[in-house]
Automatic annotation (TrEMBL):
<dbReference type="InterPro" id="IPR038404">
    <property type="entry name" value="TRAP_DctP_sf"/>
</dbReference>
<dbReference type="InterPro" id="IPR018389">
    <property type="entry name" value="DctP_fam"/>
</dbReference>
<dbReference type="Pfam" id="PF03480">
    <property type="entry name" value="DctP"/>
</dbReference>
<feature type="signal peptide">
    <location>
        <begin position="1"/>
        <end position="27"/>
    </location>
</feature>
<protein>
    <submittedName>
        <fullName>TRAP transporter substrate-binding protein DctP</fullName>
    </submittedName>
</protein>
<dbReference type="InterPro" id="IPR026289">
    <property type="entry name" value="SBP_TakP-like"/>
</dbReference>
<keyword id="KW-0732">Signal</keyword>
Length: 367
C-alpha cells in the first residue's frame, strides 16, 4: 500500500473513531430529575411512566436518574432548582406555582370547565401546548405536559355536604387560587394543606372536609378510614394536568431527535395516565362504597350556580393578569369552537356541553 493510501486509511479510521467517541460521549449524558410527589402518593406513577419510556426510547443518548419527591429537596423547591439548573428536570402540577403567575392555575386545572378529554384536545390541537411553553419559558424552562386525570373525587369528611347550602361556614381543604375564590363565594373557607396532611386533618376535625386527587389516589391515601361522607362531583377540579419542567439549557443540549423522542413519550404518557386514572377511580369508588362511605351528588341547580360563580371568578382573575386572561381566552375559544361538533354528538360526545361560558370579549379586553 502506498503512502497516500495508508494516509487515507489512517484518516478514515481516525474519523470513525472520533465519531464513535463523540457518539459515546453523547450517550453518557445523564439528567437528574425529581418530582413534587413522594413515594406514598400514586401520582408519582405518572412521572415514573414517562421516565421509563424516555430511558427506553432515548437510552442511547439520554438517561434520567429519577428521585422521588422529598429525597433531594422539599417539593416546594423543585421549581427554583429546575429554573437555575441545579437539577435538569422535575415533575409537577402547575397550580403549585400560581403565586408566581396566575396563569399557572388554569394550566393545572379548571373549576367547572374542562374535563380530561378537553385538556388533551386543547393541548394537542388547539394551542394549549404553546401556552405552556410561553408561561414556563418566562422561567428558563421547557414544559412537557404528560399527565391528565379526570375530575377529582370531591369533598370527603365527617360532615355531609349534600348541597352548596351546606358549604356555608365550612372549612375545606382545597388546592388552587381560582378554586378557593369560588368556594369563598359559595360560603366556605379554603384551608391550604399538603396532600400528606389531609388524612390527619380530616381525622382530627381540623377541617370539615377535604380533597386531594382522584378516587384512586384518595383511597390509597386512606381517606375511607377517616371519612364517613363523600360529596360529588369534584367541580372544584374538573380535570388536572401534570408534566415535567425541563431546564432550558439542558433541553438545548439535546439533539432535535432526542427532543422529539421526549415529546413523543410525553404524549404517550398523557394517554396512558387518563386511562390508568379512570380505572383506578372506578375500582376505588367500589371500595369506598364497600367501606360504608356515604356518597351524595349535588343537584343540577347547584352545579349551574357553581358555573355562574366560576365564570365571575375567571373574569375577575383575567383582568388581574394579562397572561391569565390569555390562557382562559384560549380555553373558552376551544370550548366554543369544539361545540360545533360536540353538541351534535350528544349523548355520545367526549366533552362537556356547556351553554354558559365566560364572555370571550370580556376576556380579550383584559389581555
Amino acid at each position: 500500500m502506498n503512502k497516500t493510501a495508508k494516509f487515507a486509511m489512517t484518516s478514515l479510521a481516525a474519523g470513525v473513531a472520533f465519531a464513535a467517541l463523540s457518539s459515546t460521549a453523547h450517550a453518557q449524558q445523564e439528567w437528574t430529575m425529581t418530582t413534587t410527589w413522594p413515594d406514598n402518593l400514586d401520582l408519582i406513577k405518572i412521572d415514573q411512566h414517562w421516565v421509563e419510556l424516555v430511558n427506553t426510547l432515548a437510552g442511547d443518548e439520554l438517561q434520567i436518574n429519577f428521585r422521588a419527591g422529598g429525597t433531594l429537596m422539599p417539593g416546594t423547591e423543585v421549581f427554583d432548582a429546575t429554573e437555575t439548573g441545579a437539577i435538569d428536570a422535575a415533575g409537577d402540577w402547575p397550580g403549585y406555582w400560581a403565586g408566581r403567575s396566575p396563569a399557572f392555575s388554569p394550566l393545572a386545572t379548571t373549576t367547572s370547565l374542562f374535563n380530561g378529554v378537553d385538556y388533551m384536545n386543547w393541548i394537542l390541537q388547539w394551542g394549549g401546548w404553546d401556552l405552556y411553553q410561553e408561561v414556563y419559558g418566562n422561567y428558563n424552562m421547557v414544559y412537557l405536559p404528560y399527565g391528565i386525570t379526570n375530575n377529582e373525587s370531591g369533598f370527603m369528611g365527617n360532615t355531609p355536604i349534600e348541597s352548596i347550602a351546606d358549604l356555608e361556614g365550612k372549612r375545606l381543604r382545597l388546592s388552587g387560587r381560582d378554586q378557593g375564590r369560588v368556594l369563598e363565594k359559595l360560603g366556605g373557607s379554603q384551608v391550604t394543606l399538603a396532600g400528606g396532611e389531609v388524612y390527619q386533618a380530616i381525622e382530627r376535625g381540623v377541617i370539615d372536609a377535604g380533597e386531594f386527587s382522584t378516587p384512586g389516589v384518595d383511597y390509597n391515601a386512606g381517606f375511607s378510614e377517616v371519612a364517613d361522607y363523600w360529596s360529588t362531583p369534584g367541580w372544584h377540579q374538573s380535570a388536572s394536568v401534570f408534566g415535567v419542567m425541563i431546564n432550558k439549557d439542558a433541553w438545548d443540549e439535546l439533539s432535535e431527535d432526542t427532543q422529539e423522542t421526549l415529546k413523543i413519550a410525553a404524549e404517550a404518557t398523557m394517554a396512558w395516565s387518563l386511562a390508568w386514572s379512570e380505572r383506578q377511580s372506578t375500582e376505588a369508588t367500589v371500595k369506598f362504597k364497600e367501606d360504608g362511605v356515604e356518597i351524595s351528588t349535588l343537584s343540577e341547580e347547584d352545579l349551574a350556580e357553581i358555573q355562574d360563580v366560576t365564570n365571575e371568578v375567571i373574569l375577575r382573575g383575567a383582568c388581574e393578569d394579562p397572561m391569565h386572561a390569555k390562557v382562559y381566552h384560549s380555553m373558552i375559544s376551544y370550548m366554543e369552537h369544539y361545540a360545533n361538533w360536540r353538541d351534535v354528538t350528544v349523548p355520545f360526545n367526549m366533552s362537556r356541553s356547556i351553554d354558559n361560558l365566560p364572555s370571550l370579549d370580556e376576556l380579550e379586553a383584559c389581555m
